[in-house]
Structures are given as structure tokens and as C-alpha cells.
Amino acid sequence: MCILLLLITAAAHAQQSPAPVTLKQLLNSVNQKAPTLLTDSAAIAIRQAQAAEVRNNWLPDLTLNYQADIGTANNVTGPYFGFGIVPSSSGGIHTTSVTTTMSDNLGIAAFNWEVYNFGKYGAQNKVANSDVQVQQSQFTESKYDLQAYTINYYLQLVRLQNFLGIQLRNIERTQEIRRSIESLAKSGVRAGIDTSIAEAELSKARLNYIELNNQLKHVQLQLSAVSGFNYQAIVPDTTVELTLINEPTAYLFPADTANHPIINYYKSVYQNSLQRENLVKKSYNPKISLQAAAWARGSSVDAEGNYNDLGSGYGFDRSNYLVGIGISYNLFDLRRRQLKLRTQRASTDYAMQKLSEQKELLAVSANQADVEMQTALDRLKEIPKQLKAANDGYRQKLSLYKNGLTDIIELDAALNILYRAETDYMQAKYDYANALFQKAITENQVTSVLNYLK
């Protein structure tokens, strides 16, 4: 009775369950809603903003200053280094110390423009653009990795869904055996112990079903976390495997590892390091600057050295301007440039080695994918023989048991052989689909395989 209720509940749940979510639908949702992709997309915007900032490094400085002061001008003549703030100019206008308060004001407009630095601006822009490219390549790689992650879990979901179907059929068969035993036991043909054995097998099958259902929900939760779907709504399309199996050319696609997202990412890192090398070279070049200043000043001390009313110091008495072109170069930058360039070249060599490493790993993975693909194909050819033989054997044993010509032990053995054959067939279909997608992921041809699915 409990089994009947279990099957009725499962059938009712199947009728009420939402329509299957196809792999294409799931991948589209992942591309739009995956938290990691949203974060990486924001990181690209940051790099683009930084590149725009770097492009404006050429802008000149135009500084406006004004100050009104009151104090003393009791100075002596003599040169000095101006460390920090210089409160007043150095120069004596009286032969004796004078501490009379004076006032003055000063307005300055200063212009400074690094007109030419022998390619530094251009090198900075190239590095900034390269940083954007690295971030975009990383986004593409993350998207591709997440696509592989989604496909892997979706195929696991299909496998578990099929496994649940096998388990339900196993429960039905065990129930059928139990009914036969009860009928035979009532007529005295079979001993009651057979009923206990059948009950134990039935309980074991039910426990397996519960455990498989738990595993399925865990996979649904994993997919829900990256797709935005409610986990209960992620019901897989269980025709995926047979659809691909029925396409004999599905795995015959050319490899495109040269444009693989992983390779493109490491290429962008390598190019970025080369651009940084160029920036190091340009950063220590001479700098040509255009400088200009205009200023006006007033003071309460007149040309004869008389200290007048403080109010007379707040107005401009004199004005000047100055325009000049200057070039600057630090000779010790030659050594600094050499040391920094050596460090950056080491980073470039590392990036190149990582690129070569990834190419080799992809080549090995491609070979491994071909081996797994061939193994899956060979397994699919052999499995139907096992399944047919196991099914025929079970039906024969069940018929013999009902007629009292064999015992429960042999019938259970036949049932287990059929269960294993069905499980092996389900696993073979999963292995084929998984091998096909792993080959497509490794060889950058996922879209080619997805085109076979609805």
C-alpha cells in the first residue's frame, strides 16, 4: 500500500511539475544573471574609466593663487633652499632691524604643460587599453568556465533524473514480486520467508530513491545559484542524451583552440606585459615643458622704504609675466630605467611561459577528450546487448518463480542484474554526452554541439 501511494504521489508530482528547462535556456539565464559575471562586468567598467582618466594625462596645469598678508619684512640678503613654505622673500631694504608691520597682497596665475615626453603619453594609453583588454578577456574566460560548469551540472541533473526513473521501475518490479509471493504464500506454494525478503528489497529500493532525490535537489540548488531560476523549476530535458546519440556527426567538429577563451586571456596578459615594458622605456625619457606665469603685487612699503598705511598694501602696484620652455632629464634615471625594465621583462617572460603552458594543457586535454569520446562510443555499442539479455533473464526467472520452478534468491539475482544493466545503460548515455561536451569545451566548439539541441 505504501508503495502504491509513493508511485501515485510521484505520478501526481510529475503531472504538476513545470515544463523542462532546456540547456540553452539555462545557459542564457546564467549569462544574464550569474553573480560572478555581473561582478566581472563591473570590473570592466572600472578599467574603462581608468583608461579614460589616463587619456587625459596630457592636460596642462593652470593654477590660480591669491593671498593678502600682514606682517613684517625685516629680512637680510642671502640665498637659501626653500624647504616647505617660504614666508617672505629674502632681501634687506634698511641698514637696521625694522619690525614695523606692513601689508601686501599677491595674485598669481601659473601655467605648466608637459608638451612632449618622447612617447610616454602614448605608452600610458596603450597600457590602459591593454588593461581593459585583459579584463574583457578575463570576463570572457569566466563566462566560458561558467558555461562548462552549467553544462556539467545539467548533465548530472539529467543523469539523476534518469536514475530516479530506473529506481521507480525497480520499485514497481519489486512490488510485482511481492504480490506474486503473497499470492503463492496464501496458496501454500511459497514460504512466508520469501515475503520478508521481498519486503527488505522493497525498503532498500525506496531508500535508494530517497537518496537519489536528495542528490538531485543538491544539483538543482547549484544551478539555481548561478542561473536565477527557482531550484524546483530546474527540471532537465531528459532527451538531451538520446538527441546527441542520434546525431552521428555531433562530435566531428574542427578544434578551435587558437581562439580559446583561456588562450585569449593569457595572450592579453602577455601583450599587457609587453606594453608595460614599453612604458618603462618611455617613462624615463626627457620632458619638454611649456611654462607661463602672470602675477601682480601690492605692498604698503613704497620704493623709498617708507612704511605707509596698512590699507595701501591691498591693491596691485606692480604686475609681471613670464613665459618659457624647459627641458628636464635626470641622468640617474638611466640606472633606474635599467633596473625596472629588468623586472618587467621577468614578468613578461612569466606571462609567455604561462601562455605556452596553457596551450600544452589544452592540447593534452583535447587528446584525452578524443580518447574518452571513443570509449563512450564503444560502450554505447555494447550496452544494448547487456540490457536485452538482462531483461530477458529477469522475465524468464519471474515466470519460473510464479510457477514454482525457482527460488527467491535466483529471482533477486536476476532483478539485480537487470537493475545493473539499466544503470549501466543510463551511465553510458551520460558518459557519451559528458565526453562530447568536454571535447567541445576543450576545443572551443560548444556552440556547434548546442545547435543540435532544441
From TrEMBL:
<protein>
    <submittedName>
        <fullName>Outer membrane protein TolC</fullName>
    </submittedName>
</protein>
<dbReference type="Pfam" id="PF02321">
    <property type="entry name" value="OEP"/>
</dbReference>
<dbReference type="InterPro" id="IPR003423">
    <property type="entry name" value="OMP_efflux"/>
</dbReference>
<dbReference type="InterPro" id="IPR051906">
    <property type="entry name" value="TolC-like"/>
</dbReference>
<dbReference type="GO" id="GO:1990281">
    <property type="term" value="C:efflux pump complex"/>
</dbReference>
<dbReference type="GO" id="GO:0015562">
    <property type="term" value="F:efflux transmembrane transporter activity"/>
</dbReference>
<keyword id="KW-1134">Transmembrane beta strand</keyword>
<keyword id="KW-0998">Cell outer membrane</keyword>
<dbReference type="GO" id="GO:0009279">
    <property type="term" value="C:cell outer membrane"/>
</dbReference>
<keyword id="KW-0813">Transport</keyword>
<keyword id="KW-0472">Membrane</keyword>
<keyword id="KW-0812">Transmembrane</keyword>
<dbReference type="GO" id="GO:0015288">
    <property type="term" value="F:porin activity"/>
</dbReference>
<comment type="similarity">
    <text>Belongs to the outer membrane factor (OMF) (TC 1.B.17) family.</text>
</comment>
